[in-house]
Xanthine dehydrogenase YagT iron-sulfur-binding subunit (Nannocystis exedens), 210 residues
Amino acid sequence: MSDRAGITRRGLFRGIGTAGLLAGCKPSERPPTTTEDPGDAAGPGPGEAALGPGPAPLTFTLNGEAKTVEVAPNITLLAALREQLRFTGTKVVCDRGACGACTVLIDGLPRNSCMTLAHDVAGAAVTTVEGLAAGGKLSVLQQAFIRHDALQCGFCTSGMLMSCQGLLERTRGQKLGREDVEAAIAGNLCRCGTYPNVVAAVLDAAGGSA
């Protein structure tokens, strides 16, 4: 390179590298940032009781009866129902909220019990498949399922029934169509493919056209 430039290529690169190094070593003038919420360490608010790490009492209504059970904060409603209260009609299939087999009604709305913490239903009304029959007699919906052969292996049946029962309760007195039933069971996976029979059963139970 010509001396006319007054600087060599090596000197240029050396200067750039030194400047970058010094810039990286300069202390930051900005205050450190943090994502921590000051309220995170404050603990429970007024009137709130901390749960855990051990079991804590949980009171709710199950199929019309008041229940109180000691449940750890990390236990799901599905586990509490099956393992502690021995209501085994609610099935464990995917355990990931993907199949709907564990569906129960919480205050009348279908919910995946495998994705619901037990303590989240404190004070709520929970209905499982065991709560559909009354006085030893199957419900109208259960009878319709049998009449229309809306079940095969049975793994999905209890959850399917609860989603359909939730639909019937929400639309009582209204006329249902196939689209209403299909939307209600969209989260329930039936590996046997009995969906058309399920739709027919629900429409029958609702007094509509099957």
Notes: The radius of gyration is 30 Å.
